[in-house]
Every structure is written in C-alpha cells, then in structure tokens.
C-alpha cells in the first residue's frame, strides 16, 4: 500500500486513483475495458468513472476517455482543450470549460443529454445515472436529462446554492445558508428524511442515500 495519492473515483465495476504525478491507477473487474484501458501516462488532474467508461482530465484541459463505447462514450468526447471539470453518468459524460460552458456526450437513450444548458457561466457539474446538474456562478441550479423521477422538475428554482451532488435518480444542493435541498427519486426516502435544519457545509450523494457534513462536525445520513 503505497502513498502519494490525491484523488479517487468509483464506478460500478471498479475504482481509479490519481497520484501526485498525475498518473492513474485502476483496479476492479474492468469487464468493459474502462480499467484495463485506463490512461497510463502522467499529467492528469481529475478522474470520473461511468458504469462502462473512464474519463480523465489532463492539466492542459484536454479530456481523455477510455472503455466501452457502445453509446459513443469515447467516440464523441470533446477534442479541444480548456476544460476544468468532468462528470460521468451511466453511459454519458459532461465537461465544464473555463468559460463556464457545459459540453455533454455519450448515451442519449434516456434523454441524458436533452436540455443541457447552452449558456456559459457555470462553475461545477454533477451527474446521476441518466441526469445531470450544473451550478451557475449566480447560485442557480440547472438540471437536464431523464425525468422519470422528477430529476429535472423537482430542482430548486431559487438561487444562492454553493454545491451540488447527484447519484442514481436523486440530487442534492447545498444553500449558502447551510440548508440542504433534495429532489428526484424518493424510493429509499432520499427526500423525505433530509435534514430540515441549517448549518451544513458539504454534501455527497450515494446510490440511494445522501450524506451531509454539518459545521459542528456532525455527519448526517439519510
């Protein structure tokens, strides 16, 4: 067990880690070549894993995609540079440009790419199974993709948000006042058991659950 790793990402069939040199280390089943074909050179600054593909962001802002391309996860990736953030869903991916533009590619059989924003000014991305969210610099949350569990329709319409998270069919957003807002699927009480108090400073979504970190150091899960 060596040291020197700075970031990790998990997918359905495996995991990847990024070391200080920007090299990618992958492990797991990799049955769709998302791990066995992971990039081996250095210079990466961020990683994301879909169910069948791996996306790496290089220091020069280029996006590299490896793995299964049955849904053009690899074939339609952007060829230009200047990207600062990446996110993966089941068979789709997103990248955020330095100017705040959002680029999407990959599967669209469940409308994963439908309704993606065409304006600029976004500062972060998150993707669920077949939907995605982007956080605008003005604090608005914009969602697109599949809507079978109100992943789009249930999103907050006010501003003032500072963080977003997505997973299978639900999403969460953290407001600047420390409130947590959750929308989308409620099949495992993802929404109705969310905390109603304020003071939270970070959020993360699991497959059908959510975790929030409070300013006093408490961890709340539901």
Summarize the structure.
This protein has 222 residues and is an all-beta fold.
Can you describe this structure?
There is one protein chain. The protein is mainly beta and 222 residues long. Helices cover 0% and strands 45% of the residues. It contains no helices and 18 strands. Strand 13 and strand 14 (170-175) form a beta hairpin. 43% of the residues are buried. The model has no long low-confidence stretch (mean pLDDT 93).
Task: Let me know the average pLDDT.
Answer: 93
Q: Work out the helix count.
A: 0
Largest sheet properties: 3 strands, antiparallel
Low-pLDDT sequence parts? none
Overall body shape: globular
**Cα-to-Cα separation, first versus last residue:** 32 Å
Radius of gyration: 17 Å
Total E-strand runs? 18
Which percent bin holds the helix content?
under 10%
> What amount of the residues lies in strands?
35-45%
Structural class: mainly beta
Q: How are the strands of the largest sheet arranged?
A: 1-2-3
- The H-and-E topology, N to C, reads as EEEEEEEEEEEEEEEEEE
Topology record:
Elements (H helix, E strand, L loop, with lengths): L4 E6 L3 E6 L4 E5 L15 E6 L3 E6 L4 E5 L15 E6 L3 E6 L4 E5 L15 E6 L3 E6 L4 E5 L15 E6 L3 E6 L4 E5 L15 E6 L4 E5 L4 E3 L1
Antiparallel strand pairs: 1-2, 2-3, 4-5, 5-6, 7-8, 8-9, 10-11, 11-12, 13-14, 14-15, 16-17, 17-18
């Amino acid at each position: 067990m060596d040291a020197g790793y700075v970031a990790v990402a998990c997918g359905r069939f495996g995991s990847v880690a990024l070391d200080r040199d920007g090299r990618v280390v992958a492990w797991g089943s990799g049955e769709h070549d998302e791990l066995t074909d992971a990039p081996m050179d250095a210079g990466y600054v961020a990683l994301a894993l879909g169910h069948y593909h791996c996306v790496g962001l290089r220091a020069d802002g280029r996006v590299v995609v490896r793995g299964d391309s049955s849904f053009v996860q690899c074939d339609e990736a952007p060829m230009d540079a200047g990207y600062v953030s990446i996110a993966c869903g089941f068979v789709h991916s997103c990248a955020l440009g330095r100017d705040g533009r959002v680029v999407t590619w990959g599967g669209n059989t469940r409308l994963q790419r439908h309704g993606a924003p065409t304006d600029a000014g976004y500062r972060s991305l998150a993707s669920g199974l077949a939907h995605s969210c982007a956080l605008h610099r003005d604090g608005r949350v914009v969602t697109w993709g599949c809507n079978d569990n109100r992943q789009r329709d249930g999103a907050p319409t006010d501003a003032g948000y500072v963080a977003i998270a997505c997973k299978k069919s639900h999403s969460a957003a953290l407001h600047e006042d420390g409130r947590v807002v959750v929308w989308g699927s409620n099949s495992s009480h993802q929404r109705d058991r969310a905390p109603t108090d304020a003071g939270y400073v970070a959020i993360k979504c699991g497959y059908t659950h959510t975790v929030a970190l409070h300013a006093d150091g408490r961890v709340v899960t539901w």
